[in-house]
């Protein structure tokens, strides 16, 4: 009896792991398979369990029509937003990480303060302000609102990146006669490049998937894929909405894989440390 107990316990652990893996696959692949089926359904009437006619008509329609224009628009906005946020966040994060600034903790917390409120009323109020500035319905307005939102995440991430760079290396550069600016460009910045790239990837993915601000600020002239997906689903065009969802997910998966290559454990250990 005692000899069978370890084998029984091992079997129970294996069964539990298999059940967890099956549950994880169901949670991940269930919605994904539904999107794939809808995207290939050219004719599907209730109460049929599966489409009566399959095909790639809606994929062809997506790559020939307005969806491709929306995808290119989203990419352009994401590239601009990422570049602007990185240029702004790198010097700000370095100053917050290396210098003694009064109320530094309060400054970082204030950057997170807008996240305590629902996004919809914030963007709705911003849209009225942007209409007065004549940038609503334009790409510049969408870029501005996304930069403001993405700068929050990027700043917190990059502060932890620069805090993970050993200060002793900068001190060695100072001892050799380097100025603070020279030490930043020759020592701190090269060591922080992987973290900056990882932060830039997060900003790019945020911009590519951002919906609420783009809809309220950019409509009706600036349409990205998330906005196009929403409009398609509201018009009960489930095939177009499914195709759009799958197109959005492809760069997200690719960039998350790339993000893992640049993310280091020391960045995570420094995250949130003020």
**Strand runs, count:** 2
| Residue share in β-strands | under 5%
Provide the CATH architecture of the largest domain: Orthogonal Bundle
Biggest sheet architecture: 2 strands, antiparallel
Shape: globular
Give me the CATH fold name of the largest domain.
Answer: MetI-like fold
| The level-1 CATH class of the largest domain | Mainly Alpha
Low-confidence stretches: none
Q: What's the pLDDT, averaged over the residues?
A: 78
Q: What is the domain tally?
A: 2
Spatial extent as radius of gyration? 24 Å
The separation of the N and C termini measures 57 Å
Q: Helix proportion of residues, in percent?
A: over 70%
CATH superfamily of the largest domain: MetI-like
Strand adjacency order, main sheet: 1-2
Contiguous helical run count: 12
Sequence-ordered SSE layout with sheet pairings:
Elements: H1 4-39, E1 41-43, E2 53-54, H2 57-64, H3 66-98, H4 104-112, H5 119-132, H6 139-164, H7 167-175, H8 180-209, H9 212-218, H10 225-234, H11 238-262, H12 265-270
Antiparallel strand pairs: 1-2
What are its keywords?
2% strand; MetI-like fold; two-stranded antiparallel ribbon; 12 helices; 2 domains; 274 residues; mainly alpha
Short précis:
The chain has 274 residues and is mostly helical.
Provide an overview of this structure.
The protein is mainly α. The chain has two domains: 51 residues, no CATH class; 206 residues, Orthogonal Bundle (MetI-like fold). It has twelve helices and two strands, in the order αββααααααααααα. The chain has a two-stranded antiparallel ribbon. α7 packs antiparallel against α8, α8 packs antiparallel against α11 and α10 runs antiparallel to α11. The termini are far apart. The mean pLDDT is 78.
């Amino acid at each position: 009896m005692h000899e069978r107990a370890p084998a029984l316990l091992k079997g129970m652990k294996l069964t539990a792991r298999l059940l967890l893996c099956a549950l994880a696959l169901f949670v991940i692949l269930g919605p994904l398979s539904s999107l794939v089926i809808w995207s290939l359904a050219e004719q599907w009437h209730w109460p049929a369990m599966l489409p009566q006619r399959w095909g790639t008509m809606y994929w062809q329609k997506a790559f020939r029509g307005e969806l491709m224009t929306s995808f290119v628009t989203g990419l352009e906005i994401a590239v601009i937003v990422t570049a602007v946020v990185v240029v702004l966040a790198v010097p700000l994060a370095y100053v917050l990480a290396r210098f003694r600034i009064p109320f530094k903790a309060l400054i970082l917390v204030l950057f997170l303060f807008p996240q305590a409120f629902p996004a919809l009323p914030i963007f709705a109020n911003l849209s009225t302000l942007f209409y007065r500035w004549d940038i609503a319905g334009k790409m510049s307005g969408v870029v501005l609102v996304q930069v403001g939102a993405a700068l929050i995440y990027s700043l917190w991430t990059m502060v932890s990146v620069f805090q993970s760079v050993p200060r002793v290396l900068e001190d060695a550069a100072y001892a050799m006669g380097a100025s603070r600016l020279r030490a930043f460009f020759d020592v701190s910045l090269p060591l922080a490049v992987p973290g900056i790239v990882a932060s830039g990837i997060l900003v790019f993915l945020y911009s590519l998937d951002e919906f609420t601000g783009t809809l309220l600020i950019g409509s009706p002239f600036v349409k990205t894929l998330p906005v196009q997906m929403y409009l398609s689903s509201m018009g009960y065009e489930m095939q177009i909405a499914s195709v759009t969802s799958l197109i959005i997910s492809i760069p997200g998966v690719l960039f998350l894989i790339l993000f893992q290559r640049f993310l280091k454990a020391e960045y995570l250990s420094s995250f949130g440390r003020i």
